[in-house]
Input
Amino acid sequence: MLRLPSFTYLQPKTLAEALRMKQDAGPEGSYVAGGTDLYPNMKRRHQEPKTVISLMGIAELKTTDGTTVGTGVTLTQLSALPSFRRSYSAVATAAELVSTPLLRNMGTLGGNLCLDTRCNYYNQGYEWRKAIDFCMKKDGAICWVAPSSPRCWAVSSSDVAPVMVAIGAEYVLVGPQGERVVPAARFYHNDGINYLTKQPDEILTAVRLPAPDGWDAVYHKLRRRGSFDFPVLGVAAWVRWDGGKVADARIVLGGVASYPQEVPEAAAALKDAPLSDETIGGAAEAAYRPSKPMDNTDFDLSWRKQMTQVYVKRALEELRARRRS
Output
């Protein structure tokens, strides 16, 4: 049985109090929201903070105000909000596809956006990892996915992050130096270890969503078990309409890189054209070429790459059907 290590648990009531606690704890302190990511990682000794600072008692993280949503809102609440199901259906769908109902009841928007990168070799217990020699993401010096690589190839497995990048959301961060706003696409690094641009002492407090004006987005997810698995592939597709044509577009892939991977070539194939079968096929082919899944998650690599084309096509066909209805 995997057990949590010993740690001090703190429960601030305000952001200012949480920031002070983190400053006092230093590098050995860690923020936690729902805990569905951190606590399993602690059990496997991936992360070993001596002080855990809960954000769940901070009321301002649980509010929604128009197009701004607090990161303490649970995934269940996010998927059920009438305003989100109406104006941000892709966000609600992505939240609804995360894990199981029990974990969605605990997991938060902020937690899913900051989800630790995953890998077949990393997401194992301590004794298993010790037996093969540790990887560079934790305690070792080699990436078992690509042993000759100088970097870690652990993969981004967030469902909501690709949608936020696709729709052009902005993240609000609060730290000791004050508040800053970062576009969703700039919040992530293509690095399995340093996968966020957020500083350790900063708190992701809110997400600002674009006004629902002339655009639509969808999210499709591939996983082995439809009830609760992490994505092996996620496809977020966003288009801005100009009559019957696509004025602008974004295609973002999840589960194939260490960050939500935007594919500008696929978007370029859609611009200034209707969503015809030919246009959709061209965009799907353009997304297929740069998709390079590696041996870091489930399923055969070549099949996963082929599914990129299939799922991009399905996502765009759904957008076309919704436009026509």
Notes: The longest strand covers residues 233-242. The two ends are 52 Å apart (CA to CA).
